[in-house]
Amino acid sequence: EPEVTQTPSHQVTQMGQEVILRCVPISNHLYFYWYRQILGQKVEFLVSFYNNEISEKSEIFDDQFSVERPDGSNFTLKIRSTKLEDSAMYFCASSPRAGGFSGNTIYFGEGSWLTVV
Amino acid sequence: AQKVTQAQTEISVVEKEDVTLDCVYETRDTTYYLFWYKQPPSGELVFLIRRNSFDEQNEISGRYSWNFQKSTSSFNFTITASQVVDSAVYFCALCKQNTDKLIFGTGTRLQVFP
Question: Of the candidates B1, B71, B62, which has an alpha carbon nearest to the alpha carbon of residue B29?
């Protein structure tokens, strides 16, 4: 069964460093997302991406964050200068069409644990 | 504003017991979508079900069943004859029309003991 894959599974970084989290969405999907989950808390929406541009973002997704689809398969989340509070599990997700427009299923990857020290 | 409430933080049951996980949502929209996801100890989010606001028919899938009631804004999830492998955190989520954003509840941790 096709799945969303994420790398790395776990990354430890020093405060102030740049981090890039990578995702390979399901191949025929057109909508891509990043969510995050601080340890023990709920999953929170960060950003959605369609047709090479951001379609929606949350207040969490400030100037420190950026997303990119550098080639036909990868979808990346960059955090420019990490802070301690960025420590979380970051989930990539994809959907064949917009989840809200037609209630399509949004499929999540296994997550990337980011620990900022 | 949209909101999802899962009032049960943690539930413990013994194998073979039935268990119901509650989900109450708030939205002013008439068209919206509700989801349940399972997060096992390994951490990934596993899709379980999607329901749109116009379909109040209850659904059964094996040991899993869902009860959607618009009158009470609830979308409860029942596991029949629970098994140890059901131990996980279960999240209910809401997605309103014309947006891609899933709004998650705080999750319910289910522990099934042998």
Answer: B1
